[in-house]
Design brief:
single chain, alpha+beta, Alpha-Beta Plaits, five-stranded antiparallel beta sheet, 9 helices, globular, Transposase_17_sf, DNA binding
Length: 228
């Protein structure tokens, strides 16, 4: 049983990773397929497959990002996306529930839809994610701001570089005004608390640096424990 109870109007940090820590995104096509799932499955009315939603036009391998309004006419959202980060083997979402049962419905459709796509593409079967998605209730405004910085720059927290860097997608560029194609995040609750974007950038970078240092300390403490 999940300990967190989802309530309308509340914010939650949602995350999960691949089973056995495996990669869940193998190329940019996978990333855009997951994003399109976020866009299409986030509505109250029942929805079939992504292919059905686009009148049979195959988009699974399409690398071109699409605008929210180009895909669907909203019939009422289940959740609001505040920010997100997709890393090679895990993802983070900061979302606000706006419809009864919204998070559970949205995450079920998103996870099962992407797993079906990934398994068909890679000729595999079974679970892709490590159990049910994890959820943390955001209980204060300070926590809300911190989580936004942690997620927007999560690839820096994990020091993802090299070839894996190409398999990272974050809402950071949208927050910075650099990605004007995908406008999928409700940013005002975060950016409205800063005088300008540079102040938020500074704040988020400090959060990422602090989180990165904390991870290093925990790794070092674990190593010491093993040696003792």
């Amino acid at each position: 049983m999940r300990n967190v109870k989802f309530e309308n109007g509340e914010y939650y940090h949602i995350y999960n990773r691949g089973t056995d820590k495996r990669n869940i995104f193998g190329d940019k096509g996978d990333i855009w397929r997951f994003i399109k799932g976020i866009l299409i499955f986030n509505r109250k009315n029942p929805v079939g497959s992504i292919r059905e939603e686009l009148n049979g036009r195959r988009i699974d391998r399409d690398l071109v990002p699409v605008n929210y309004g180009d895909l669907i006419e909203l019939s009422g959202e289940l959740v609001e996306i505040i920010c997100l980060c997709l890393n090679p083997n895990h993802y983070h979402l900061l979302i606000r529930q706006v419809s009864d049962g919204g998070i559970s419905k949205f995450m079920h459709k998103l996870g099962s839809g992407y797993t079906t796509y990934f398994n068909e593409k890679n000729k595999r079967s079974g679970s892709l994610f490590q159990g049910t998605f994890k959820a943390v209730h955001v209980e204060s405004n300070e926590q809300l701001l911190y989580v936004s910085g942690y997620i927007n720059l999560n690839d820096r927290v994990h020091e993802i570089g090299g070839e894996d860097k190409a398999l990272v997608f974050s809402s950071w560029s949208e927050y910075c005004g650099e990605n004007k194609v995908l406008n999928m995040c409700k940013k005002d609750i975060i950016l409205g608390q800063f005088d300008n974007i540079n102040d938020y950038k500074k704040f988020a970078k400090e959060v990422a640096e602090s989180a990165r240092e904390n991870k290093k300390m925990k790794r070092e403490e674990s190593t010491i424990d093993l040696l003792e």
